[in-house]
Amino acid sequence: MACIKRKHLEQYLEDIEVFENPKVELEQYPTKPHIASHMLYTMQASYGDVENKLIADLGCGCGALSLGAAMLGAGTVVGYDVDPDALEIWNANCAEMEITTCQAVLCDLTQGFPSYSFPKQFDTVIMNPPFGTKRKGIDMEFLQMALHMASTAVYSLHKTSTRDHVLSKAEKWGAKGEVLAELRYDLPASYRFHKKQTVDIEVDFIRFSFPKTKCEKVKS
Amino acid sequence: MKLLTHNVLSSKCLKGVSVGYPLRLNATDIKVVDVDYNSEFVSRMIPKINYSALYDAAQSIGHLNGLPDAVVDDFESNEDFLKAVHHVLLEVDIVSGDLECPESGRKFPITRGIPNMLVNENEVNEINGSNGYNN
Ligand SMILES: C[S@@+](CC[C@H](N)C(=O)[O-])C[C@H]1O[C@@H](n2cnc3c(N)ncnc32)[C@H](O)[C@@H]1O
């Protein structure tokens, strides 16, 4: 099934529409096709965490990661975002790409949705969370929720400067994080109050998984 | 909104709500879409979903399409059963209507296929700022 090439995935992702008027307070910027395709490809080729899986995409925005996962053969992707405008674009992207395996939920993840469904109902959670530039700690709120929802693995992007903190928090929550790649990420300048057009920041692509013994201990 | 999504949503983060599941479903516009049948995915989903919530939701909107009221024993190899679940779980799409909290009656509208679970600050429990399992 997931026989499309990484390069082709990247090309498909070039065609999806992105935020019309990005909302700075929500840290809205899309995962670039190049990065998104590498992330998704690694998830499938190295770990088999995409094909036939039930996947959640937290802060799904216009759907770069959700649609990419669907193209790689995900069973179903449920995307969650707080911004109705982004989800309209998300819907239009699914229609345009003729993707029928993605669904969206409008919710504020800082209010606890969707962690009140049954724990571990999803196989895999993917996300490119807000880094907490605007609301401190939101990246960790997303991570904690993701770890609650996933039964196999969580894939996420975090600022390299916060790596130790992220990994030790994850361990407290019963998960082991492994840095799969260090990326240079060009953030639109507005996110750092910078005069240049974009600013490169260092970002880790991390896979979190659950060591068997610890997994049982997570209270539900 | 597909019934698979309905199956993973609850309203437990509302103040005073203890279970908030399953949400009552009212549909005013339903569309049936064609989704490629993937037996492996469907059979993997069966132990993960709340089957009775799926059954009740499908029944309440008149889209059971022959879905039995309980999981059959040989579900992994029973193609008829898997196809029935596939249809109800993934092909029935609620375009508009609402979801209703079974305890508080709070309604969450579904528009253009997207359930709106946004609530006001004063409607949510304070302790659950981030998640439901570390308190
Ligand atoms: C960095 S963008 C990533 C967008 C998309 N996943 C992608 O990869 O292109 C972060 C997303 O998180 C969403 N977001 C920010 N705060 C949120 C919250 N409290 N609840 C849900 N989503 C939120 C934003 O609307 C935005 O779409």
TrEMBL record, chain A:
What is the superkingdom listed in this entry's lineage? Eukaryota
Which family would the database say this protein is a member of? Belongs to the methyltransferase superfamily. PrmA family.
Q: Which PROSITE patterns match?
A: N6_MTASE
Domain Methyltransferase small span(s) in chain numbering: 43-146
Q: What is the lineage of its organism?
A: Eukaryota, Metazoa, Ecdysozoa, Arthropoda, Hexapoda
Q: What does the record give under GO molecular function? A: nucleic acid binding; rRNA (adenine-N6-)-methyltransferase activity
User: What SUPFAM superfamilies does its record include?
Assistant: S-adenosyl-L-methionine-dependent methyltransferases (SSF53335)
As recorded in Swiss-Prot or TrEMBL, the protein's gene is named: LOC113210964
Pfam families, per database record: MTS (PF05175)
Record's protein name: Methyltransferase-like protein 5
UniProtKB/TrEMBL annotation, chain B:
**Which InterPro entries does the UniProt entry name for this protein?**
Trm112 (IPR039127), Trm112-like (IPR005651)
Keyword line? Cytoplasm, Nucleus
Q: Could you tell me which CDD domains the record lists for this protein?
A: Trm112-like
GO CC annotations, alphabetized: nucleoplasm; perinuclear region of cytoplasm
According to its UniProt record, which protein family does this protein belong to? Belongs to the TRM112 family.
Q: What is its main location?
A: cytoplasm
- GO MF terms held by the record: protein heterodimerization activity
**UniProt superkingdom:** Eukaryota
Q: Where is the signal peptide?
A: none
- Which biological process terms from the Gene Ontology are attached to this UniProt entry? rRNA (guanine-N7)-methylation; tRNA methylation
State the name under which the record lists this protein.
Multifunctional methyltransferase subunit TRM112-like protein
Where does the record say this protein resides? Cytoplasm, Perinuclear region; Nucleus, Nucleoplasm
